[in-house]
Write a structure and sequence with these properties.
- The chain has 112 residues and is of the alpha+beta class.
- Helices cover 35% and strands 22% of the residues.
- It has a four-stranded antiparallel β-sheet with strand order 2-3-1-4.
- The chain starts with a strand and ends in a 7-residue tail after the last strand.
Amino acid sequence: MVKLILLVKRKAGLTHEQFRAHYENTHAPLAWSVLQPHLIRYTRNFLTPLPGQPEPPYDCVTEFWFPDHAAQNACFAWTRSEEGQVLARDEENFMDRASMRTWIAEEASSHI
């Protein structure tokens, strides 16, 4: 299994609530509908600082779970296609795309 981690910051001028509402009600259903053939799981983790802590530099940690690198590569190829630009166009509505950061993650679990 391969996991891609995406750090997302909201577009300037949007509140946390507006950002989350658009992500959950518009973008996530769209993304799942077009990426689902490649994905095992798609999660959004919205960040809230602990009391007394500064605001996080990002608003959401998004996780894309792929069965293997072939599925991940197929997904990347699709998102770079003309058809795949549907996601990028919607991201412009609520994400600060220039600040997005992406990594491949290798998950380790403990059962202590």
